[in-house]
Amino acid sequence: MFLSNLDNVPLKHKQLGLVFGVGVPPMRIDWKTAEIDKVIEDGIERANNHMIERAEKMGADAILKIYYEKETSELGVRIMAWGTAIQYLKVQ
Q1: Cα 21 to the chain's mean position, in Å?
Q2: Residue 66: pLDDT above 70?
Q3: Are the beta carbons of 17 and 85 closer than 8 angstroms?
């Protein structure tokens, strides 16, 4: 699955709709000593995997216009991701 924050790709395609994913990293870490970058990367990976699962069910080949949002609290981090699922059209 191709993931991009680009608005468009140079191939003929049709938009299938909006897909989203939420990534909540495991709470097994000590927030005072943890490297927050690794925690955020884990959340992004989980959010992307959820988006990909939803897009594949729609028959998508790629997700474009991906946006991420991060929420943090004393309990942890939550990453939300959303984008537009597209399907490439066959050239004749």
Answers
A1: 6
A2: yes
A3: yes
